[in-house]
Amino acid sequence: MNTVYIWGAGHYGVLTALELERKGAKITGFIDSNKELWGKKRLGVKIFSPEILNTLQGRGNSTKIIIAVIGYEQAISKYLKEIGLFKGQNFEISEIIGKPFYPIELNAKEKKLADYLLKENLTMTSRGRIYATILSCKYAVEQNIKGDFVECGVWRDGNSIAAAAI
What we know:
Structural class: alpha/beta
Radius of gyration: 20 Å
Strand content: 5-15%
Number of helices: 6
Largest sheet: 6 strands, mixed
Distance between the termini: 49 Å
Number of strands: 6
Helix content: 25-40%
């Protein structure tokens, strides 16, 4: 059985672990560059320093590293290549990276709205915060809460567009 480590103990690392476990893989550990996480656990699995890779040398193809960090994929890939690991053989980038995840409460129209706002660069707000705006406004409307929506610190009106669409 392969030894599987996920590089990245954050949100995408957890999502990657859950997806791999759903497919029958057993996660051996997480690897993270954040010293404050070393020794802690995610999903009951220990988080290691990148130094763990030194102890894995010589295991050949039995160790697989899945990179699940946004923005650092190339730097981590470069590092893994420098220590003698091969993309596709010893490591790969998680399929989760780059795919949007939607809260189950969003309907198709709301998903399309969020994607549009982000694709057209109409907001500096993160995907998660756009979802929160949509769900908060949706809740207010469904509960018939009286009042108005106000966006402060407007850049390109992305959150106002989201609120108005609800």
